[in-house]
């Protein structure tokens, strides 16, 4: 049976792609951010997951205001980066796993999460930047991917409580897959940021650190926030944190924090990184 080996959550700020392309990892501005990742890459090298389920939000690329699913999932053989270009070089397509995707879809819909099923899907920085941070140093990506996309663009957004429940259904879906594969669940986005309006540039370190702590030990407490609470405390783009809650909901076993990092500001955002191991 499939096994969930752990969850990783990371911010997905597009400027990171440009920093990687220009080799700025040791630059004083970027170093405290990039220094967070080697322990996570080491853990991945040791654990050797077969598949990454990547929970992220599209930013107007694959879905726009004319058609906006609340939750969408990929069922394609591959996914192409089609972001408008933040400096990353052209990347080969990310391999999918249609058979696993269809199993997840069957299970999620059966559990009353009516996912939009995407047999074609382009991906943006919400998906691409985290994969570059985790496996960008490899010649070829050593995992197959399943993108799970969440609307954080067009209100009303799904509530944190609903997202946490989706995570639980996702965990059940993954673990009922009959093949012996190891799965890592990624939740991307956040933490606090506001890209426009009167509070543009707003970052709330205290709230971010509280979220990073409680998501380990007391995720239910975070699931009680409303989307508007998240906007108030973490800025207009702060609700991207719901992707972290889906990741956390999917971890079904004994959860242990292995590593974390937090650094501000990276671009306009409080950049958080968290690695949680999931033991049976
Ligand atoms: C930034 C952060 C994001 O999550 C995003 O999608 C775009 C930009 C930023 O901090 O610049
Ligand atoms: Fe974003």
Q: How would you characterize this protein structure?
A:
The chain has 280 residues and is of the alpha/beta class. Helices cover 34% and strands 24% of the residues. The chain contains 10 helices and 11 strands. A hairpin with a 2-residue loop joins strand 10 and strand 11 (269-279). Helix 4 (98-110) packs across helix 6 and helix 6 runs parallel beside helix 10. It is globular, with a radius of gyration of 17 Å. The two termini are 12 Å apart. 48% of the residues are buried. The mean pLDDT is 96.
Short structural description:
The protein is α/β, with parallel strands linked by helices. The chain is built from ten helices and eleven strands. The strands form two sheets. An eight-stranded mixed sheet has the order 6-3-8-2-9-1-11-10, with helices on both faces. The chain has a three-stranded mixed sheet with strand order 5-4-7.
């Amino acid at each position: 049976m499939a096994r969930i080996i752990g969850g990783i959550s990371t911010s997905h700020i597009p400027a990171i792609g440009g920093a990687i392309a220009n080799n700025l990892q040791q630059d004083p501005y970027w170093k405290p951010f990039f220094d967070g990742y080697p322990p996570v890459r080491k853990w991945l090298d040791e654990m050797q997951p077969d598949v990454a389920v990547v929970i992220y939000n599209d930013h107007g690329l694959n879905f726009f205001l004319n058609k906006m699913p609340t939750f969408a999932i990929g069922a394609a053989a591959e996914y192409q980066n089609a972001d408008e270009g933040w400096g990353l070089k052209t990347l080969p397509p990310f391999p999918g796993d249609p058979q696993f995707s269809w199993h997840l879809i069957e299970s999620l819909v059966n559990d009353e999460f009516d996912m939009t099923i995407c047999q074609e899907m382009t991906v943006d920085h919400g998906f691409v930047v985290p994969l570059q941070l985790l496996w960008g140093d490899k010649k070829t990506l050593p995992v197959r991917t399943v993108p799970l996309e969440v609307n954080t663009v067009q209100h009303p957004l799904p509530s944190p409580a609903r997202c946490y429940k989706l995570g639980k259904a996702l965990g059940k879906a993954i673990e009922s897959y009959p093949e012996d594969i190891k799965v890592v669940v990624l939740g991307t986005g956040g933490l606090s940021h506001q890209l426009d309006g009167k509070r543009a540039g707003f970052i709330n370190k205290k709230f971010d650190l509280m979220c990073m702590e409680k998501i380990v030990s007391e995720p239910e407490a975070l699931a009680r926030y409303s989307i508007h609470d998240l906007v108030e405390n973490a800025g207009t783009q702060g609700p991207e944190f719901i992707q972290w809650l889906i990741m956390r909901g999917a971890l079904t076993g004994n959860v242990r924090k292995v590593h974390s990092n937090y650094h501000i500001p990276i671009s306009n955002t409080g950049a958080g990184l968290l690695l949680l191991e999931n033991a049976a």
